[in-house]
Design brief:
Blueprint (H helix, E strand, L loop, with lengths): L19 H14 L6 H14 L4 H7 L5 H14 L5 H7 L5 H14 L5 H7 L5 H14 L5 H7 L5 H14 L5 H7 L5 H14 L5 H6 L17 H12 L2 H12 L1
Length: 262
């Protein structure tokens, strides 16, 4: 079963400049993408099949973003994220305001994959979305884009009600490497969440600001384990040590030397 109208490849039904084989592959892939009876595994295959065709599939996929079915709109956004073509940015920004949460969070992910600066304002707005996953993926996307205009919004996201959003914002601030984030990341080092402390330490290591040295040294006593309890390489203190290695100031180097001997 299919939903809505078939996306047209052109007004005449043909895709100009495409070989017959590519035209048929695109037509068949789009038809499967719009099949609302697909099982989850088949949905992934359908998304992959359209994405493999490449940028030729972008215009018809943008049409599919207006499909009546939110499931189909989500698949179209996912395929556009896999293709990573900047011509999809405007359509995905529109999808970032879709009434369906799944479409919005997939659009945020796709915009991060494309990493085009035109998406920054829309993603900043999405940091206020009512749904946690949309905010989380928007923060992650802003980190992938790396535009300093996102810093203030990401700093505010460090105070989000969701720990997952805190983590995404901390990581994004590290990717952007803007020194304005340092005081806020230092505060995040005192979080009750080991994951937040780890990501804040990683971000400070990326920024390489010597203001972080003393706080990171204090974190060398933090033996909280991450992901797999008991594995030493996943302790918070190991991430603090790596951050100090990146900063590499005399004080950081001396503290690391003492820590490794202890």
């Amino acid at each position: 079963m299919q939903t809505g109208n078939e996306p047209s490849l052109s007004s005449s039904g043909d895709a100009p400049g495409l070989s017959s084989a590519t035209h048929h592959a695109l037509r068949d892939a789009l038809r499967e993408l719009r099949d609302d009876t697909l099982l989850p595994l088949d949905q992934g295959r359908a998304i992959w099949a359209v994405a493999q065709i490449g940028r030729t599939a972008v215009p018809p996929l943008l049409d599919v973003l207006s499909d009546a079915s939110p499931t189909v709109r989500q698949r179209a956004a996912a395929a556009l994220g896999r293709i990573r073509d900047p011509q999809a940015v405007a359509g995905l920004l529109h999808a970032l305001r879709d009434p369906d949460t799944r479409v919005r969070r997939t659009a945020a992910w796709a915009l991060g994959e494309i990493a085009d600066e035109r998406a920054v304002d829309g993603l900043l707005d999405a940091l206020s979305d009512s749904q946690r996953l949309v905010r989380q993926r928007s923060a992650h996307a802003l980190g992938q884009i790396g535009d300093p205009r996102a810093v203030e919004g990401l700093l505010a996201a460090l105070h989000d009600v969701s720990q997952h959003v805190h983590m995404a914002a901390a990581k994004a601030l590290g990717q952007i490497r803007d020194r304005r984030a340092v005081p806020y990341l230092l505060d995040a080092l005192r979080s009750s969440s080991a994951d937040v402390r780890r990501l804040a330490a990683e971000a400070l290591g990326r920024i390489r600001d010597e203001r972080a040295v003393e706080a990171l040294i204090s974190l060398l006593d933090d033996t909280a384990s991450l992901y797999e309890p008991g594995r030493q390489k996943n302790r918070v203190c190991d991430f603090a040590a790596r951050a100090l290695e990146s900063i590499a100031s005399p004080r950081a180097v001396a503290a690391l030397s003492d820590w490794r001997r202890s």
